[in-house]
Structure prediction request, 463 residues.
Amino acid sequence: MGPAKDQASGMEPRRTLRALSSAFRKTHFLCAFSALCGSLPLTLASPELHASIGDVFGFGPRGSAMNAQTAVADDYSASWYNPAGLHALSRPRTSFGFTGVWSGLSINGERREIEDPHGIFFGASAPVPFGGFLKDRLWVGVGLYLPWLDLVKAVGPAPDEAFFPLYDNRTQRLVALPTMAVRILPNLAIGASINYLARLDGTVISHEGAARGLEADVNEHLAATASPIVGIRYDPIPEVSTGLAWRGEFRLPFRTATNNHVSGNLLILDIDATTLYSPHQISAAAAYRPIPDLTLALDFTWKFWSRYDGPFINVKVEMPDVLGVIEPGVPAVPFDDTFNLAAGGEYHLALPAGHDLFVRAGVGIEPSPLGTQEGPTNLLDGFKTMLSAGAGWATELEEKRRLAVDVHCQVQIVSEMTVDKTPGVLTDEDPATPGLQTSNPGYPTVSGGGSILSLGAGVSLTY
Prediction:
């Protein structure tokens, strides 16, 4: 048994489709999203993007160190965890930081890197200085994350490629979360962030020019796609805080129709993909301060992964004079909802001369949403255990300003997952040869797991 060899004359339509899909994945995606990345700086004047980095590794050094933040976050990181948390901020604050990710994941013993894993954080938040009825009732802020190399990077894998869908291509994009919080009662606040990003839509028409070279007419446009993040923060007594947040589903659609006229033949390709996906999430949380200098926090999060269609590109091919219409669709992958748990703590130690030290730690567990795969797909994931720690130092400066420096370290341990290929499910690409002949890279089995390390540091200034 072994991989089937291509026939000497011609390829099956399925192999033709695979070659066309691979070519467009490598060329058309790069060209189109290069245009998208070049246009994105124009949207920074009204930054409204979603925080996928927060979904995977946390948002900011404090959040990544404690894991549980829905009832605790009170600065720019609240734009992701719970926008209502801004109401606990008494003075304006700006923050700047860096985070890096190093992969120890492997597939069949070979190390698997994460593309563009490093980025820069920036945040600003402040109470709005209104008077009268609106005094001490309104807060605004924004949280930004900029990948180190590319503003946006979208990757559409081949249907049988082995990879980690919950890590690959979920953090490689600009994040900007504008936030507003309103205090309804002295101990009750609501807040919202806007999740906005441009998606690419349009057509490409190519034909032979006067010099018999290919000429293309491209009509692509950036259309808006958006979803909200909303939250409630209720502090019934000074020692207890509670929070409830809903983070809306986010997906970046990519749709393009191409009409190609080559040597008198018409080739029509309709490309449809979904990338940079985050599911609907509902987080319920509580924090307790048994003593003034100790905060304990607990988060429960329900993630609606069952709505996810998968990360693959759907390519519809139409060659009226040769093949007719081929529309295989994307392979079905069962995703299940998950119920995640995160817990963390922070201890404050007052030092002489106006200095303060904060020690933080957190743990978390997240089951894998991936179900059993019987078809050609080779998606890998595993039960995830998060262990994190961090520290902060703060001091008072002149003019009532306060400087703080925070660091974090987080390790995510991904248990090994193995996908066994059933010979009766996979297509025999050469029935004339004894045994199953398949080019599926996951046959007869594929496995993956490992760990991921995240490190970060940030500086904050309170005015």
Remarks:
- Residues 274 and 429 are 29 Å apart (CA to CA).
- Residues 1-51 have pLDDT under 50 and may be disordered.
- Residues 13-26 form the longest helix (14 residues).
- The chain has five helices and 22 strands.
